[in-house]
Amino acid sequence: MSSNRVALYALLITTFIACSSAHIDKPSDAIPEGARRLMEAYPDYVVGYEDNMIVFSDGSSMVYDDGKSRTIDEMHLEQDVEEIFFQEYDKSIYPPPYGYDPGRYRCAEFFGKIYGGTREEAEKNLVYVDWCPKLGGKPVLFTSVAGAAEALKRVSDELEQHPELKSWVLNAQTFNWRTIQGMTRLSPHCYGIAIDLEARRSHYWKWTYPRANEHSKLEYYNTFDMRVVEIFERHGFIWGGRWYHFDTMHFEYRPEINMPEYAATPKQRVITVGKVAPKIEKKIYYNVFKEHKKSSKEEQLRAEFYSKVFKTPYHE
Ligand SMILES: [Zn+2]
């Protein structure tokens, strides 16, 4: 074969491959990145995506993107599945800038489907996790669905290697069927995927600023030990201290936005191959943030206020 002919064959083959992949990658075939992450995070529950619908293992399906563009206030009332991914959970963004609340927008329809949409359904899935027994902890209720209880047990096992962190983990609260303070939405504590630690030493924006609303400018507060945060985050939990609307006692199992590090590599986890997912648009509101130094007087006022509101400990 002449070298000219080899070059011609090479060109033809390259053109063929280019045409084939162009066909595979056309937009109607693409699985949105969010839908793919749901399949990776909840493989026993979310098994497919087709025509803007996510498909569940029981054969039912749910609209992924309802096409509505909501304001922040509207998203606190109603969300579609796509809006679970409204903001990336980025650990390098700290302290959280204005409006940055990654993971705080939860689609009630989706989480109700996975964990139970009524108190009775959610309660059926609860199991006791022996929480830090070597440090003196007590069993806590958590959902057995989607690996949540196993993930919490892994956190507990690792925390037990650090007796110096004991004072941050013993006071724990988990399942509680209630709405979020000041909202009609269910709290993630309803699903058995959230744990609050050391509430009395933590900061929640509405306890610090009782008159503030979602649009208010807030100063960020956190005294929580970051070593505890780091352990939770490695096991698929997100931390409320990464929110502008800070809730530093709050840890929540959310593998779709913070995949546990022990999960298979992304390449192994991808269920559908040959399709390219579009990148999630990052909608993050940045603002100049100044570190706020707290005076002891401020801390004292806060403690006094806190002792009053703790009688109704409703938060995220
Ligand atoms: Zn909480």
Alpha carbon gap, first and last residue: 72 Å
User: What is the topology, as strand order, of the major beta sheet?
Assistant: 6-7-9-8
Q: Please tally the β strands and state the result.
A: 9
Low-confidence parts lasting 5 or more residues at pLDDT below 50?
10-28, 265-295, 308-313
SSE order: HHEEEHHHEEHHEEHHEEHH
Dominant shape: globular
- Number of discrete domains: 1
Give the topology, please:
Layout: H1 3-24, H2 33-41, E1 46-50, E2 53-56, E3 61-63, H3 72-77, H4 108-115, H5 119-124, E4 126-129, E5 140-143, H6 148-159, H7 166-169, E6 172-173, E7 194-197, H8 205-208, H9 226-234, E8 237-239, E9 250-253, H10 266-269, H11 296-309
The structure holds zinc ion.
Give a summary of the structure in a few sentences.
The protein is an alpha+beta fold.
Describe the structure.
By secondary structure, the protein is an alpha+beta fold. It has one domain. Helix content is 31%, strand content 10%. It is built from eleven helices and nine strands. Strands 6-7-9-8 form a four-stranded antiparallel β-sheet. A three-stranded antiparallel β-sheet has the order 1-2-3, covered by helices on one side. A two-stranded antiparallel sheet has the order 4-5. The longest helix has 22 residues, at 3-24. It is globular. Bound molecules: zinc ion.
